[in-house]
Amino acid sequence: MKPTEGSTVIGKSVVVRGELSGNEDLYLDGDLEGTITLTDSRLTLGPNARVLADLNVRDLIVFGSLKGNVRASGRIELRQSAIVSGDIIANRLSIEESAVMQGRVELTASGDAAPASTGTSESASFVLEPKA
User: What DSSP assignment string belongs to 91-104?
Assistant: First the structure.
């Protein structure tokens, strides 16, 4: 997996602890523990990424491991090698075969990445795991 041209890259040997925020696309292939805020940008977690964080992003593509809750105003893609444990709130969700996801999923109306407080939103809880 190659980073998108113009993305900031954090390599697989880098370890980050704390808060990460910005206004440009980010490709993360290392370890991160804390929070990530990229509300106007795409975050790609590479195949070597090990992330323990809550995320607030526009778009998210996961190839690696993620433990934490995700809020995306756009699309989330869980690729074949993804392992995700946490709740997801997004407008769109794509899960490839063999991706592992454990947590609650809430798909919201376009442009509304925040959970509805009226109690009228629908959500589903499920666990996806590859067949043995």
Answer: SEEEE-TT-EEEEE
The continuous run of DSSP H or E covering 50 comes out as strand 50-62
- 93 to each of 16, 75, 82, how far by Cα in Å? 27, 6, 13
The tens digit of pLDDT for each residue in 31-61 reads 999 999 999 999 999 999 999 999 999 999 9
Q: What is the pTM of this model?
A: 0.81
* Identity at 85, one-letter amino acid code: S
**66 class by beta-carbon count within 10 Å (0-12 exposed, 13-18 middle, 19+ buried):** buried
Pairing of strands 100-107, 124-128: antiparallel
Phi/psi-derived region of residue 34, left when phi > 0, alpha when psi is between -120 and 50, beta in every other case:
left
Nearest CA among 8, 101, 17, 102 for reference residue 46: 8
CB 84 within 8 A of CB 100: yes
